[in-house]
Amino acid sequence: MSNLVNAYPWFADKTEHLVALHNQDRLPHALLIHGMHGIGKALFAKSFAQLLLCQSPTGSATCGCCKACELNAAGNHPDLFILEPEEAGKQLKVDQVRGLGEFIYSTAQQGGYRVVIIDPADAMNIASANALLKMLEEPGSDTLLMLITAKMGQVLPTIKSRCQHIECTVPDESEAINWLITESDLDEASARGILQINRGAPKEALAYLERNQGEVRAQFIRGLTDILKQRRSPIEVAQAWQKMDLELVLGWFYSLLSDVARCSLCRNDSVLRNSDAGNMLNAVAKKTDPVTIFKLMDKVHEERRAIVLRQNPNKQLQLECLLMEWAAVLN
Ligand SMILES: [Zn+2]
User: Fold this and answer.
1) Is the same domain home to 84 and 54?
2) How far is it, in rounded angstroms, from Cα 276 to Cα 274?
3) pLDDT tens-digit series, residues 144-186
4) Staple partner for 128: which of 124, 182, 217, 284, CB 3.0–4.6 Å?
5) From the CA of 60, how far away is ligand 1's center (Å)?
């Protein structure tokens, strides 16, 4: 059956590890799967859930034709529960988490495991987390909870301490490039460039292509160049960026600045990750000192964090301030 999910190849060793634990009856009842956004953690969790539910798996592969595989392929296996916020970017409500209790404490309908995926695990307030704690402590036998997060710092310590952690890192560049080439029409150099812009996260790189973010990216780099060349003021550029996703843009800005810092410390432009802005970054690195850049990096990081935590009162004003500092890096 073709529509069962398969985790990305760079998760193969993790899947094998979990299968081995399961075969030895040592599978923990709660896993906290963490790692940066865009590397495929959710698909890894889902494919392992399907494997665990399959009635005749072979090693790390589902059979694709048992009753469980059929139900999974149709997306309605009664023993798989995926808990997500009702709206993307919102919190998991305490009632949603309580609803999970009924599932966990009932008997598995297909007689095997009950699997829960909570994504993202950082989208819980104290009340939701408390509702989950008891289930994490005593989930009952043959139950696996998989919690997923890209924001480990925002997962409550009480949740963290009750799970076994699986750290997911960015895949090898060559593996990620090969995958991206297979999924798109890119040549190797373009695939490498787009992967680097997206911090090595392959799924993020593919989403970048699919959402045509190249245009936004070009506008972003043009804005920074125009400020340095005094073709536009920081305020004008901040206005032009008004509709952009600031979390994304400040992530790019931070990455560009770290390139400048690296380049100016190493005196070598081969360390650049943002090759699409290479000329500008090189020019800035030659004319500024790393301390100025590190200070600006700290501010960009703080602003981005405030946006992620939704603590930012006036995004536009903050962006103008950051761009004014950017205008001053060459002075
Ligand atoms: Zn099966």
Assistant:
1) yes
2) 5
3) 999 999 999 999 999 999 999 999 999 999 999 999 999 998 9
4) 124
5) 11
